[in-house]
Amino acid sequence: MDFSLNDDDLALRDAVQRFCEGEYPAPERGNAETPAQAAQRHIALAELGLLGLQIPAELGGSALGPQAAMLAAEQLGRALANGNWLSNAVLVAPLLAEAGSPAQCSEWLRALAAGRLQVALACGEPEARYDLADVRTRARPSADGGWTLSGRKALVLGGDGADLLLVVARTAGDRRDRSGLSLFAIDAGSPGLTRCPVTLLDGRRAAQLDLQGVALAADRLVGPLDAALPLVERAVERANAALCAESAGALEALLAMTCEHLKTRRQFGAPLAKFQALQHRVADMAIALEQLKSMACVAAMALEASDASERHRLASAAKTLTAQLGRQCGLWAIQLHGAMGMTDECRVGHYAKRLIANGQLFGDAAFHLAAFEAARCSNAG
Amino acid sequence: MKLAFSAADEAFRQEVRAFVRDQLPADIRRKVELGLRLEQADYVTWFNQLEARGWLTPGWPPEQGGPGWTHLQRFIFDEECLLGGAPRIIASGIQMLGPVLIAFGTPEQKARYLPDIRASRTWWAQGFSEPGSGSDLASLRTTAVLEPDGKHFVVNGHKVWTSYAQWCSMMFALVRTDPSAAKPQEGISFLLIDMKSPGLTVRPIRMLEGGTDLNECFLDNVRVPVENLVGELNQGWTYGKYLLGHERTGIAGIGSCKQQLARARQLAGQQGLGDDALLQARLAQFEIELIALEATALRLLARGQRSRVPQVEASMLKVRGTELRQAIYETLLDIAGPDALPFSAEAQFLEFLDAADDAPVAPELASVAANCLDARKLSIYGGSNEVQRNLIAQAVLASH
C-alpha cells in the first residue's frame, strides 16, 4: 500500500487547482453557467490537457491512469466545476480508447482531447434506475448493412451540448439480459434524434434522448457486437471513482467554509466555534472527510485491480460511503450555517447539492450496498 | 500510489500468520475467539512466545530489542495477531512505560526495568486516573513530598481504574510534586512505585460484565526512593503525554473489528440469520466502514513517521475505530437475541463452559452480552471520545 504522490502528481494537482481558481472564482461556485462560460471553460480544460488525461499519447493525450483522474476530480469538486470533464474525459475517453476501432479513435479521441468534439455516454434509461443491463432501446440491422435505433435514454451527462453521443442499445436478447448490448455513435444532428436538455440538482447539464428510427451506417458500431456491457460498466466505475474524489474535494471546501463561519458568527456573546455541540459536528465532518479521501484512493486504485469482482466490491464500497457521508455532511453544513445556509446566495447549499447529486449519480448508497454484498459473496464463494 | 501490499509486506504477513497459527496454544486462541476471560498465565505464555521471536516490543528501538519494523509491518503484525486469535498486548509496560524509560530514563532505570518488561517478569500498573481526575487528568491530586534528607518521596493519594493491578508488582504514576505551580500541568512528576510498598493497598472493582481486572489503589504515606523519579522533577506531564502519544498504530483496532465481524457472520449462520436481509445489510455496511477505516489508518500512518501518528489523526482513528467496534458488538447482541440473556460471570471462563453439560446457551454465545458491555470502555478510556472530538475540532478550526 502506498498513498504517496510523486512530483508529476503534485504538478498536475496544482495545475488543476490554478485552472479552477481562474475559471471558478470562489464566490461564484455553483452558479448557473452561461453558454459562453461553458465554451470557454471547455477550451481551457483542453489547453490544460485535462480532457486527454486518459487518452493515448499518439492521439494527443497524456495516457495517465486513474490516480491522475482522481487528483483532477478532487480539485474540480472543490470548485463545483461543471460536468464536462466527467462526461468527456472520464466516461467517454477511456471507453472509446478501449472499444473503438483505430479509425474511430483517431477521428474522435484526437478531437475530444483538443476540445473540438464533445462526446457523451448514454447508458441509462427512464425506468432502469441504476441497472445498466436494463436496456430497452433497440438497434435493428437495416437493409444497407447499417442500424436503426429506437428508444429513450435518460440522464445523459453532458448530453445537451455533446456533438456525438455513444448510445447503448440492445442488439439481442431481452430487457435485462447482460448480453446482447452494443454501443453506437450517433451525431447530435441525426434525423430521428430529439434531445431534451435537463439541468440537474447541482447545476450540471444533462439530456434525455428520444430516438425514433435513427439510421446509422455500419461503421457507427463501437466495440464488439452484443458484448458492450462490461465496457460500459467499467466506464461507469471510472465515473464513480471520479465522483468519490469530487465529493472529497467538495467536502474539503465545505468544511473550510463551515469552520470560517463558526469562527466569525457570534451568538450569545461568543463565536459559534466555542460551542461544544457545534465543535463535535465539525469533528465528525473532519473524520468523514478523511474517510472520503481514503475511499477516493480506494476507488481509484480499485480500477486497476485485475479481479473483476474485487474491483466491483471496492468500487461499490467507495461509492456507498461517498453517497452516505457526502450527503450527511452537506446537510450538517447547512444546519451549522443556520438559515443563511438555506439561501441560494450562500455557497453552502450549492456544495450540499453537489454532494447529494454525486451520491445519486450512477448508483446511490442502497444500490451500491447491495452490489457490494453481491460482489463480496461472489468473492467468498 | 498502489492498492496492494508489496511482495515483501505480503511475505511478512504470511510469516506472522504462520507464527501465530503454529505458536499460539489452542486453548488461548479459543478463549480469545469466544470472548472469554484470560488468566495472567495465558498472557505470559503468549508474550514469551513473542519475545523469543523478537516481536514483543515492536515500538522499541532496535538497540533496545525492537525488531525495527516499518509502520506498515507494525500494522500488519497487529492485525494478524488479532485475526489469529492472539491475546492483545497489555499496553502498560510494553507500550507505555517502555518507550518513556527508553526516552527519558536513566541508564540504571533502563538496565533495571526494561529486561523484566521484555521477559514479562514485571507487570506494570498505570497510576494515572483518580476519582476526581478522569478525562481531566491534569487535575490529579495525589501528592509526592520529598523528605528533608532528599532520599525519598512520600506519596499520598488515590488512583483508580488501574488495569490488572492484581498482577502488577510495579506502578508508574503521575503525582503532584509542586502544588503551587502556575498551571495544573506543571508541578506533576513521573514516579515508579513498588506495589509491595507499605501503605499501598489494592481493591478490585467489580464491573458490569462481571470482570474484576480494574482496581483502586490507595497510597497512604508510601515512601518511594528518589532514584525512582523518571526524568526531571515537575516535568511528568510531558512524559505522560509522550506515553499516551506513543504506539498509536493499533489505535483504530482494525484487527479487532475484523475479528468481531467474522464472529458476527459465523454466529448469524449459527442463529439461523444467514439469510436475514436486514442483518446482512448491516454487516455489509460495517464491512464497508472497515475498508474506509483501514484505508484511512494506512493513509494517515503513511503521513506520520513510523509508529508515531500525530494527535489529531490518532484521535480520528480512535473515534472511528472504537465506535465501529461498539456498533459491531451491539449487532452481536442482536444476533444472539434471547440467547444473550442467560448471564453468569462464571460462564466467561473456558474451564466452566467446558465442564458444564447443562449450560443454557452455546459457548459461542455465553460472553456476547458481557463483551458488548465491556466494549463501552473503548469510548471512555484513553481520552473519552468526547475529549477526542474536542481535540479534533480545535485542530480543524485552528487550521482554517
Identify the notable features of this structure and list them briefly.
heterodimer; A: 381 residues; Butyryl-Coa Dehydrogenase, subunit A, domain 1; Butyryl-CoA Dehydrogenase, subunit A, domain 2; Butyryl-CoA Dehydrogenase, subunit A, domain 3; 4-stranded antiparallel beta sheet; B: 400 residues; alpha+beta; 4-stranded mixed beta sheet; globular
Describe the structure.
- The complex is a heterodimer of chains A (381) and B (400).
- In chain A, helix 3 packs parallel to helix 6 (229-264), helix 4 runs antiparallel to helix 5 (102-113) and helix 7 runs antiparallel to helix 8.
- Chain A has helices at residues 7-23, 35-47, 66-78, 84-99, 102-113, 229-264, 276-302, 308-337, 347-360, 365-380, and strands at residues 119-122, 138-141, 147-157, 164-170, 181-187, 193-199, 205-216, 221-222, 266-267, 270-271.
- Chain A is α+β, with helices and mostly antiparallel strands.
- Chain A has 3 domains: 7-117, Butyryl-Coa Dehydrogenase, subunit A, domain 1, CATH 1.10.540.10; 120-226, Butyryl-CoA Dehydrogenase, subunit A, domain 2 (Beta Barrel); 230-380, Up-down Bundle (Butyryl-CoA Dehydrogenase, subunit A, domain 3), CATH 1.20.140.
- The model of chain A has no long low-confidence stretch (mean pLDDT 96).
- In chain A, the strands form 3 sheets. In chain A, strands 1-4-5-8 form a 4-stranded mixed β-sheet, with helices on one face.
- The longest helix of chain A is centred in the middle third of the chain and has 36 residues, at 229-264.
- In chain B, the strands form 2 sheets. In chain B, strands 1-4-5-8 form a 4-stranded mixed β-sheet.
- By secondary structure, chain B is of the alpha+beta class.
- In chain B, strand 6 (200-205) and strand 7 (214-225) form a beta hairpin.
- The radius of gyration of chain B is 22 Å and the shape is globular.
- Chain B is built from 14 helices and 8 strands.
- Chain B has 3 domains: 7-89, no CATH class; 123-235, Butyryl-CoA Dehydrogenase, subunit A, domain 2 (Beta Barrel), CATH 2.40.110.10; 248-398, Butyryl-CoA Dehydrogenase, subunit A, domain 3 (Up-down Bundle).
- In chain B, helix 9 (277-303) packs antiparallel against helix 10 (311-336).
- Chains A and B meet through helix 6, helix 7, helix 8 and helix 10 of A and helix 9, helix 10 and helix 14 of B.
